[in-house]
Amino acid sequence: AIPVMLLVVILEVAAPETVWSGGVSLAAAAVLLARMLGWQTLKTFKIPLVWVLHAGYLWLPVGFALKGLSIFGVLDNPTAALHALTAGGIGTMILAVGSRAALGHSGRPLVASPATVLSYVLVLAAAVLRVFVDTDWALTAAGLSWTLGWGVFSVAYWPVLAHPRIDGKPD
Fold first, then answer.
1. What is the mean pLDDT of residues 22-27?
2. I need a surface site. Which of 76, 100, 125, 151 has the fewest CB within 10 A?
């Protein structure tokens, strides 16, 4: 998966928006999705700290597929791929890893609170709106959902990050 993604980057520098970069983007999407098929994602839905990682990763093949389809003229929204990879992939993964790491490094149980799950849902909804709904109202709704999601996360995790570990171990 890593070599094919690196090839996309190289082609985007050497031959941007060409049939070559489009084809390799679609190949990267296929490799990433095939890699994910063995992960038993459906079994993770009862564990938010895990399913959100799967959701964040899923944005990678979606983003590369959208990039390839855009280059080949199948899609008319060239920014969809960029937003899938950034708002979807990066945004969701930062939230997922940040919440898990904050809980683990503060000595708390690795269990997502309802506020944490809400922040996941809001950030994912923002990404879906931004990527797949190309209207003015969706852009506004995505921005509000993104801001609210990160706001909920910030309020929920401020006490976790601003206080010493609850298990008494050194920081």
1. 97
2. 76
The predicted-structure confidence for 54-106, as pLDDT tens digits, reads as follows 999 999 999 999 999 999 999 988 799 999 999 999 999 999 999 999 999 99
Contacts (Cβ under 8 Å, ≥6 apart) of 66: 75, 80, 81, 84, 131
Tokens 């690795």, residue located: 110
- Cα 18 from Cα 68, distance rounded (Å): 9
Instruction: Pick the closest to residue 131 from 73, 82, 64 (CA basis).
Output: 82
Q: Which amino acid is at 119?
A: S
- Give residue 39's Cα distance to chain centre: 17
In terms of pTM, does the model score above 0.85?
A: yes
- Output the 3-class SS for 50-109: HHHHHHHHHHHHHHHHHHHHHHCCCCCCCHHHHHHHHHHHHHHHHHHHHHHHHHHHCCCC
Which amino acid would we find at residue 149? G
CA gap 151, 141 in Å, rounded: 15
The torsion angle over the Cα atoms of residues 145, 120, 85 and 37, rounded to 10 degrees, is -140
